[in-house]
Amino acid sequence: MKALLESLQPGQKDWDLAQAIDPARLPAHIAIIMDGNGRWAGRRRLPRVAGHKAGIGPVRSTVETCARLGVKVLTLYAFSIENWKRPRHEVETLWRLLRFYLKQELPDLKKNDIPLQAIGRLEALPPQVRRELESVIDATSNNRGLLVNLAINYSGRAEIVDALNSILEMARLDGSIGSLKLDEDTLSTALYTASCPDPDLLIRTSGEMRISNFLLWQIAYSELYVTETLWPDFTRTDLLQALVEYQKRDRRYGGLSAAPVSGAVKDGDETLIEALRSS
Ligand code: FPP
User: Fold this and answer.
1) Fewer CB within 10 Å, N- or C-terminus of the chain?
2) Which residues contact 164 (CB under 8 A, 6 or more apart)?
3) Which 3 state secondary structure label does DSSP give 63?
4) Of 14, 16, 35, 183, catalytic
5) pLDDT (tens digit, 9 = 90+) per residue, 165-219?
6) Which of 36, 34, 148, 48 lies closest to 102, judged by CA?
7) Annotation says 35 is catalytic
8) Which of 32, 35, 84 to mutate to test the pocket of ligand 1 (most atoms within 8 A of CB)?
């Protein structure tokens, strides 16, 4: 947080937003569905791929802001398993952009102590993309700052299926399959995100109210924030606004508010409870 404030000037809108954020209650993990690239391009009468190209800038600035804030994990939905249904030219452009991004960002990832990881069915990526991705993952694996997780060839359902299959395979190998009993922790630790806390905040750009097969297991209690801003227009200001909104939420995890209001049990409630007891 200190690093972010040092990069801002008093009087700037982002300065005021940053002042409104409590550093002690930052989300540890932010996940983002980067949506709206195609519409951004369409509104400018440009080909869809121009929207994806314009989407690289916000990836860079979001990583930078999260690192300066002291967020621990940032997960970005870059390519879903379902995205293979798009025209070949668009899919190939997305791979080209990913390779460009990896090459361009490696020095800054190293300089800023940022480890890069990827989640998804990486074995199905084009070999060149996979090699370059693995080489950046490797080159940044000893970094200890903000963890950037790129979800590539990812789908939440496929992740759960893969996790279950890996548990079954292990149990087959160690002979425990007959007595195998699953619980939530066993499944969580078999997911691609095993080493990460669940997202506290899920942001989706472009106004669509959908989860689109993203982190289905992990977002059970994430706070959702949807902005009309299209991904190529997503700025540091948008991110800070999302954080201000996040800090207004009362996260109850199915329980009661952490700050109970006085007189929480009202006379009427007691009469109702008594009536239920005696019925
Ligand atoms: C969704 O917009 C976006 C994608 C499918 C790709 C996201 C890719 C980037 C932001 C490019 C760079 C990213 C990295 C990590 C290098 P859409 O095409 O579905 O937009 P639409 O809903 O308006 O059609």
Assistant:
1) C
2) 187, 190
3) helix
4) 35
5) 999 999 999 999 999 999 999 999 999 999 999 999 999 999 999 999 999 999 9
6) 148
7) yes
8) 35
What are the phi and psi torsion angles at 33 (to 5°)? Answer: -95, 105
154 strand-pairing partners: 80
Atom of ligand 1 nearest to the CA of 77: 7
Report the C-alpha gap between 57 and 109 in whole angstroms: 15
**Residue 257 confidence (pLDDT):** 85
Q: Which two tokens stand for residue 6?
A: 């040092």
CB within 8 A of 259, min separation 6: which ones? 250
Atom nearest to 98 CA in ligand 1: 16
* Contact present, 20 and 244 (Cβ < 8 Å): yes
More confident residue, 278 or 189: 189
Residue with tokens 């297991």: 217
156 in Cβ contact with 213 (< 8 Å): yes
> What one-letter code names the amino acid at 45?
R
